[in-house]
Write a structure and sequence with these properties.
62% of the residues lie in helices and 4% in strands. By secondary structure, the chain is mainly alpha-helical. It has one domain. A hairpin with a 5-residue loop joins β5 and β6.
């Protein structure tokens, strides 16, 4: 029987509220700052769902809310310190990329560096339950593979969240749902510090969402997407993989099923078409839903529901052994149905940016001051990750 410490619950609520208020209050300030430094998302291809320039850098407000709340209310041990230092590195990467787009390989190197900061602070996947029963051993001890596998996990999850950031409120909302599920699990298994930190992340997301829901007034940008993915990745190692005696190996994958599925499918799709895995396209799950005739709010609502189902399944899987088999079957069934749903839906080719009265030539960028500015010839389309 699981019991929850009411004192810890009060700390969790205070941490959530503090991050929420700070994120909400700072977002308008960050919006003005983004406009001044030119961190604007200008729709120039068919992948963009908006029709006018919108400020990026919203993740900066979430980061400040999350950082202050974590420093005030959590125990900053070496692992948490390493996570926060890594957050600073990915946020700096995101801020630069939101202002001056970076090459994909530059972002990847910086993400690996941030992952190594976490790893050498003690955040490592060292052992987990064996997912293959007939191997004859209950636990898999990674030893020398611990570092590369942890780095791979952190970079994969970080980019998974970044890749689903394609509709208003999608990445932030999905991250909030996943964070809330991880928060509940941490409370139930008495991981108090993890619960407080995840509460800070939930609060930072919820505080930002009123500005980010359709029609969005500001985007989280790479600053926000990389931050959310990095925190989810590192805290899953601290709070989920570490409690291997209680929680199944499959739990982190179930919790983050939607972004991981979308990323895996994107890589397979691009390789099948002879493209680089980092080549941007209009084949993500959210694009497919839009191409089937749904509007942004409907598509986001569907993906919120999918995330909530997986998050609830993860919570019950962590707490109720008798339902594990049924939940796993249902989770895999949902994943299969989602995969079939996406694969059956075609997607439109990327159209050119529409000509408008203010912008008769799609190759001409309209700046904030209303002047036409031709992009430099060497500026390339923003690449993923």
């Amino acid at each position: 029987m699981f019991t929850i410490d009411m004192g810890l619950l009060a700390q969790v609520l205070v941490s959530l509220a503090a991050a929420l208020v700070m994120s909400f209050a700072l977002t308008p300030v960050v919006k003005v700052f983004a406009q001044k430094v030119g961190a604007m998302d200008v729709p120039r291809d068919g992948r963009r769902m908006h029709d006018h320039p919108i400020p990026r850098l919203g993740g900066l407000a979430m980061f400040l809310g999350f950082l202050v709340s974590t420093l005030l209310f959590s125990k900053v041990d070496p692992q948490v310190r390493g996570m926060l230092l890594g957050c600073v590195l990915v946020v700096i990467t995101g801020v630069i990329d939101d202002i001056v787009p970076l090459k994909w390989w530059m972002k990847l190197i910086l993400q690996i560096a941030a992952a190594l900061v976490a790893v050498f602070s003690g955040i490592r996947i060292e052992v987990f339950s064996n997912p293959i029963p007939f191997m004859g051993t209950e636990w898999l001890i990674l030893r020398d593979l611990s570092i590369p596998i942890t780095v791979l996990w952190i970079v994969l999850v970080t980019n998974s969240v970044n890749l689903i950031d394609g509709l208003d409120g999608l990445a932030v909302g999905v991250s909030a749902i996943d964070s809330l599920a991880m928060l509940v699990i941490a409370l139930l298994v008495s991981e108090g510090n993890v619960a407080i930190i995840m509460a800070a992340l939930v609060g930072a997301c919820v505080g930002f969402m009123p500005y980010n829901m359709n029609p969005a007034k500001i985007f989280a940008g790479d600053t926000g997407a990389l931050l959310l993915g990095y925190v989810l990745a590192t805290m899953s190692v601290i709070g989920l993989f570490k409690t291997y005696a209680i929680i199944s190996f499959l739990l982190p994958f179930l919790l983050l099923a939607l972004p991981l599925f979308d990323t895996s499918f994107a890589i397979i799709r691009r390789l099948a078409h002879g493209q680089s895995p980092m080549h941007p396209d209009r084949g993500h799950v959210h694009h497919r839903l839009i191409d089937m005739g749904l509007n942004q709010k409907q598509a986001v609502a569907i993906l919120y529901c999918v995330s909530a189902v997986f998050g609830l399944s993860a919570v019950v899987l962590a707490t109720s052994g008798g339902m594990k088999a049924l939940l796993l079957v249902l989770a895999f069934l949902a994943t299969g149905l989602l995969a079939g749903f996406v694969l059956r839906s075609g997607h439109r080719p990327e159209p050119e940016a529409p000509k408008t009265k203010d912008n008769p030539d799609p190759a001409i960028r309209i700046t904030l001051k209303g002047h036409e500015e031709a992009p430099p010839e060497n500026r390339e389309e923003k690449e993923e990750p």
